[in-house]
Amino acid sequence: MDSKAEFEALVRPHVDALYRTALRMTGKAASAEDLVQEALVRAWRSFGGFQRGSNFKAWVFTILTNACINEYRRAARGPRAVDFAQVEPAAREGDSYLSVEDVEALKARLGDEARRALDKVPDEFRLVFVLATFEDLSYQEIAEALGIPIGTVMSRLFRARALLRDELADFARREGFLRGRSTA
Q1: 180: how many CB neighbours lie within 10 A of its CB?
Q2: How many CA atoms lie within 13 A of 183 on its CB side?
Q3: For position 85, what pLDDT does the model report?
Q4: How far apart (Å, rounded) are the C-alpha atoms in residues 47 and 68?
Q5: What is the biggest distance separating any 2 CA atoms in the chain, rounded to whole angstroms?
Q6: What angle do CA 72, 84, 25 make, to 5 degrees?
Q7: What is the pLDDT confidence band of residue 101, given thresholds at 50, 70 and 90?
Q8: How far is Cα 91 from Cα 182, in angstroms, rounded to an integer?
Q9: C-alpha 55: how far from its chain's center?
Q10: What number is the average pLDDT over the span 85-92?
Q11: Which DSSP symbol is given to 81?
């Protein structure tokens, strides 16, 4: 099998997931398409260095993530400072949590509400959340893709989940999933 055919065979099952991830990272369809195209061009150029038998999905998602980070840095012209006091929801006494069954029942109804909530999560946290939740990458794979320690991955994932839980709590109450539970 020649390199082009091998590359196409390896990348084809992941194109939709790459696009979904890019869309979640950028929030814009056109930007997501550009990002995926850039990542695939970079992957093709680097394909000679890909170690056959290793995890292709993690490799190509690393390239996508790096392309996104490079584009973000290019646009921002420097790192963005995050004030954790502003983005981390304060723990409230009597906080109520959704059960696994509640989350499953909410899945079908979330749609736009979930997208809006995810858009409110800062980029650093959202990227880790998307890679872990939607692309099933391990903490180690995310850490390698982003070039950050595993502890940072875990911290950002925790913060993203806490922010999403806080954002979606009102929706869950309106839908009756937190009825009769403390809202203080």
Answers
A1: 7
A2: 12
A3: 52
A4: 19
A5: 62
A6: 30
A7: low
A8: 13
A9: 19
A10: 49
A11: P
User: Residue 117: which of 157, 159, 72, 160 has the closest Cα?
Assistant: 160
Token readout for 58 is 């993690």
Q: Which helix (H) or strand (E) holds 117?
A: helix 112-120
Q: In whole angstroms, what separates CA 89 from the centre of its chain?
A: 19
128-149 burial code (b ≥16 CB/10 A, e <16): bbbbbeebebebebbbbbbeee
CA distances from 12 to 48, 57, 118 (A): 18, 11, 27
Mean pLDDT of all residues in the chain? 78
Q: Where are the alpha helices (DSSP H) in the chain?
A: 3-11, 15-26, 29-46, 56-76, 84-87, 100-110, 112-120, 123-133, 139-146, 150-174
Cβ atoms 38, 62 nearer than 8 A: no
Q: How far apart are the first and last CA of the chain?
A: 62
> Any alpha helices (H) in 12-55, and if so which ranges?
15-26, 29-46
